[in-house]
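Weekly puzzle thread! Below is a chain. First person to post its structure in token form gets bragging rights.
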Amino acid sequence: MDKLNMSSADLAKRNLEKLVSLFPDAITEVINNEGKLIHAIDKDILMQDINLEVIDGAKERYQFTWPDKKHSIVMANSPITKTLRLEKDKSLGRDGINGEVDSKNIFIEGDNLDTLKLLQETYLGKVKMIYIDPPYNTGNDFIYEDNFAQSADEYADNSGQTDEEGNQLVQNSESNGRFHTDWLNMIYPRLRLARDFLTDDGVIFISIDDNEQENLKKVCDEIFGSNNFLAQVVWERAYAPINLKKNFSVSHDYILVYGKDSSVIQTNGIARTDESDNRYQNPDNDPRGPWSSSDISVGPAIKENIYPITTPSGRVVEPPAGRSWRLSRQSFRERLQDNRIWFGIDGNGVPRIKRFKSELRKSGITPMTIWKYEEVGHSQSATQDLQKLMGGKKYFDYPKPVPLIQRCIQLYTEEDSIVMDFFAGSATTAHAVMQQNAEDGGKRQYILVQIPEKTDPKKDAYQDGYKTICDIGEERIRRAGKKIKEETDADIDYGFRCFKVDSSNMKDVYYAPADVEQLSLDGFEDNIKEDRTPEDLLIQVMLDLGILLSSDVEVQYIAGKKVFSVADGYLLACFDKDVNEKTVTEIAKKKPFYVVLRDNSMANDSVAANFEQIFETYSPETVRKVL
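Winning reply:
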């Protein structure tokens, strides 16, 4: 049986494998500075293969760079050996029952860079929409477990900011000489990983303000490709000026929108409203139903489309100066014959083209790039709504409005899409997904990630029992779900499975047995940490095998041993010891796609020797793994 890797994907290794498959002749071997034989790229052969110059050295080129950019790329690609652990007490069942784990939604407490790496294999190409509201870099408002300039010890000595495992927490400040650099190094690796989560027709929305808008767009152009830029939306977040401002009172934020592959992406559009439908009338009783009309002149003028038109009343009209008709003579005659030209009730008006409501594309109204607060809410309304939901307490200063995130969901998701937000904050995205599902009967699932940043002991949130931002977000989901259920009685998923990022379930010897001194091996009769449960092991196995965390898990007992059946028997995992041939045989007869056992689980050498033969007899196609 093969041994499970039990670590996140090594993306640099994966990229090398892709390069090897495309250009095998460009891969060579060299001795590095440490005297080890390593793979390398032969630049000259690669240049010949792609027929394009390869730039190196200090040669001038068009590029966007900053200090430590190379390090941020390495951070995105390097694997980790952490895992997720289920927090059952914090989880909420599908029907709003505390402690149940039957929900398909996911809430993860932990650094989002670690989380994205852990989920990379499982949710690769499965997320239809990502919305994130990252820190705006306004001076002192983001804390993440990254290390760009100092060692963890140096930073801890300077700031005292470390988590329970001793990881360095970065807190940005305008007095920091690396103000933009640290923000870019924070966002860049996360966006590199995020791109791979999107489906081919997936879309990412990123909220930002003027401080980093320019840099963010350059980063996104590099990661997603400038050809996959869809829009820069201007959201009117404020409705009244701040007169104390010296020059301008800023009333907007931006939302950058990029797609995975713009050639296959098309918006669902904005649902039609009564106001938009009322623009369609039928004054001439056209059998095709209600219509509206639009101008058929266009500028600048096209010479061949400048011609006179005689109205039914006999008046001759021509295009305005500097303009022409948008229709050629032939096209105009065809539409006139088809009763698609309107000259007004009296037949004396300038011709206009009729556009029928029945012929509008089903995807709704194409969204414009300015989103007014009357349509999607503003910061003050969002703050007030959240404050009301949380019992009158103001725990967040600038949450996003639920209707704002709902519009993003409406534009690009289907009823069964997965929506991700890895800067979850107050969990507005979860609220918006539930609200949208309640309104259209959808079964969208969300994945939220939030670092468990501690709340201020002097503030209401801490004193009310919310020790971290995660605590507030999770309670917001509970309350929002209850409110939606009371108002709509919709049959949707109101819950979430709560996980936290933690160190691996496996001891160091599991990953590098050669690095563990022989004398220390006496303490390792097992390669699994003593405080870890079978449920902990199951989750790490699911991550390693790329099985959705939302999968149904059933506990079975086979010949007296506890066996986890995941996704209706797709995976059967048994972490008990003293497994005998009867248990192995019964598991094999169920013909799972994967079977996983502990490395030392067999009752004796005879069972271990017969294991492979049993599976070859009953289920030869089963992939067998051990940990």
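Puzzle host: Confirmed. Bonus trivia for everyone else. Residues 147-169, 519-524 have pLDDT under 50 and may be disordered.
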